[in-house]
């Protein structure tokens, strides 16, 4: 219909695979690819058009397939699309995104003290907690409250409800304010990957990345050196 309409000019055609990372059952992937080939056969003058179908999974896990004249590397730009399939990759990919904050308040709770909205967490003993200026408005949603963060190379749990602009964590000891907190990334021998967060939140890994709000400053590094900083809160 597009080719018959004089008001429309078709410059390209694409499709998207639903199961490109399912290496146990490739039948639907092959079915989709065959259907796309059939569709292309009815398009006139397609030699000069941009044709693409391969997302990250298809590009990396099916490199033997001809994928026309373009591929779409989306989540693969952030690292291995699927940690469980890392051994099948035709090249080594590194995780390129990390997420950090700081402890901006550290205090000691008494037994019976409550934390967060509706007092969801109740201290059963004297304990240290830390407040981190990161909340669901920044992209760290309620679904992530079952995850941990890294403080001083140790995993510490999120406690209570995640608020709009902050969340609380249980600390094993007192730390100074300004101590670095890692949500995604590595401290010493401990590492938290986005795949782990996605699994605990029952979400695709890509949703963890795309949830990160523009309120968060972006620091771009190359060869270990900072090359650019973008902060839309200070410079919209």
UniProtKB/TrEMBL annotation:
Q: Where is the Alanine racemase C-terminal domain?
A: 96-221
InterPro entries linked: Ala_racemase, Ala_racemase/Decarboxylase_C, Ala_racemase_C, Ala_racemase_N, PLP-binding_barrel
Q: Which GO terms describe its biological process?
A: D-alanine biosynthetic process
Does the record's keyword annotation contain Iron? no
Q: TM segments?
A: none
Cofactor(s) this protein cannot do without: pyridoxal 5'-phosphate
UniProt keyword Disulfide bond present:
no
Keyword terms of this UniProt record:
Isomerase, Pyridoxal phosphate
Cellular component, GO, one term: cytosol
Mention one GO molecular function.
alanine racemase activity
Which Pfam families does the record associate with it?
Answer: Ala_racemase_C (PF00842), Ala_racemase_N (PF01168)
Classification via NCBIfam families: alr
Write down what this protein is called: Alanine racemase C-terminal domain-containing protein
The protein's organism comes out as Adineta steineri
């Amino acid at each position: 219909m597009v080719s018959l309409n004089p008001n429309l000019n078709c410059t390209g055609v694409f499709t998207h695979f639903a199961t490109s990372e399912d290496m146990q059952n490739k039948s639907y992937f092959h079915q989709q690819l065959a259907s796309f080939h059939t569709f292309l056969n009815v398009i006139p003058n397609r030699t000069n058009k941009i044709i693409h179908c391969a997302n990250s999974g298809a590009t990396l896990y099916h490199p033997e397939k001809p994928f026309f004249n373009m591929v779409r590397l989306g989540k693969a730009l952030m690292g291995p699309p699927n940690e469980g399939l890392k051994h099948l990759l035709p090249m080594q990919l590194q995780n390129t995104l990390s997420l950090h904050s700081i402890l901006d308040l550290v205090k000691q709770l008494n037994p019976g003290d409550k934390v967060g909205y509706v007092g969801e967490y109740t201290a059963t003993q004297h304990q240290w907690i830390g407040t981190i200026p990161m909340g669901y408005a920044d992209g760290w949603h309620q679904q992530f409250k079952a995850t941990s963060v890294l403080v001083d190379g140790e995993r510490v749990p999120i406690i209570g409800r995640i608020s709009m602009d902050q969340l609380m964590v249980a600390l094993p000891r007192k730390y100074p304010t300004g101590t670095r907190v890692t949500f995604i990334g590595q401290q010493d021998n401990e590492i938290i990957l986005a795949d782990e967060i996605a699994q605990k939140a029952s979400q695709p890994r890509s949703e963890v990345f795309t949830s990160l709000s523009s309120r968060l400053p972006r620091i771009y590094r190359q060869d270990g050196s900072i090359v650019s900083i973008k902060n839309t809160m200070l410079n919209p």
